[in-house]
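Hi W.,

Here's what went into the run:
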Amino acid sequence: MIEVSKVRKSFGDQVVLRSISFSVEAGESVAIIGRSGTGKSVLIKHLVGLLSPDEGAVRVEGQDLVGMSERQMLSVRQKFGMLFQGAALFDSMNVHENIAFPLRRSGVTDGAEINRRVKSVLGLVELPGVGGKMPSELSGGMQKRVGLARAIVHRPQIILYDEPTTGLDPVVADSIDQLMMRVRDQYSVTSIVITHDMRCARRMGQRIIYLREGQVYLDAPAEEVFNSEDPQVSRFIRGEADLKEVDFS
Amino acid sequence: MSAAKGELSSFVIGMGRVALLACEVVRSLSSVRLNWAEFIKQMHFIGLKSQFVVLTTGASTGMVFCAQTFYQFHKVKMDTATLSVVGVAMTSELGPVLAGLMVAGRVGAAMTAEIGTMRVTEQIDALRTMATHPVDHLVVPRVLATVISMPLLTVLAWVVGIFAAMILASSLLGIESAFSLKHMYFYTDAEDVVMGVIKALVFGLLISLISCYRGLNCTNGAEGVGRATNEAVVQSCIAILVSNFFLTLFLRSLLYPG
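Here's what came out:
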């Protein structure tokens, strides 16, 4: 369904991604993990065409996004839903309008149908009755849940989650994890999660891709990764710093 | 010297990219349905809410210009020609330029700040992932609303400026109003009015395109939004003043061929 082939991306002199290749099948749930600054968010933005690689190809259902114009890419993007790290809710719209937005964009014009579906996803993310509130009136966790509702309301084939639990307290993070699992199981969507939260990766990822220094260091089933004896991988999973790599000066 | 060269080259490159944005706006207008809700919201913000600032500027400029002209003309006993100078200047030059500068400061800054904040908080990326082109959703309604509002605001500046000048002339400066009005009608041609309206349209286009471009290309968080807003206002004002000169020459030769 998604194929990333030899993608390289740099910003000025800084090379962020170095020849990254992997593929994700329809219905699969993949977690991409790695330390901060390894290019996880840059990679996920390539999958939906928000960034274009310097080299390589990104194919979604066989269509190569590289070289497509912004307008040509619009039809490909209808297959996607995306939850952003900061939720990225439109602050000029209330919650109801935010969630209705992708529905209207996908061609649903019947007001009653829009209201029904917005209400339904707000129920799914356990936020009934907040439709009239503005994003600034919501807590960070509530914004993430609204962002999730907005990402799934038009029933996309692929959902991308960019650090869905970052900055949330463990209880709220747990509720977001459970919501993502519910969405994955209920709608059978292809899910790609970028995270450095190991509990989130373990719960969401049937397969784990570990990025290190802009490259795929390990791409394996979740159990294999979590039981890995490779010191790089196991240290990252346990959240232990390699003191040789830490500069205290 | 090299800093000035760098500024100039980035200004020229920026203008080239603004021209590309204009092409994208035309493409959108010809192929995508207008976002009417956003357009009406922008008309309210740009057209309606800019009235006070344009009205105040128009009245103030009309009166000051009338007083200064009167003091010079009075020396050569041409008091009743005062309003004709005010009429010509307000319609073809001062009205559109001052309305443009006020709109650039008030509306252009707000446009860049809003779009720039959307950019740095990933709201524009969110729009794109929802199969929405930012130009269709954000730029086209703003450009249309500014291009439509600017001539209306300019006419408001004329009316208020000339009316304020008339009141000043007849009540405080003691100019014979019948003669001065007759002179004003005689010397202010329809071509001056047409020139003012065309300039207002062009200024509206420049302000909205520059402001949207700066917002869409904003980076570096809050500091970047501040810098982009500042650049948008400065570049809009420069674009208005520079284009005004060339428009005056071009429209003069077009509208007054003899």
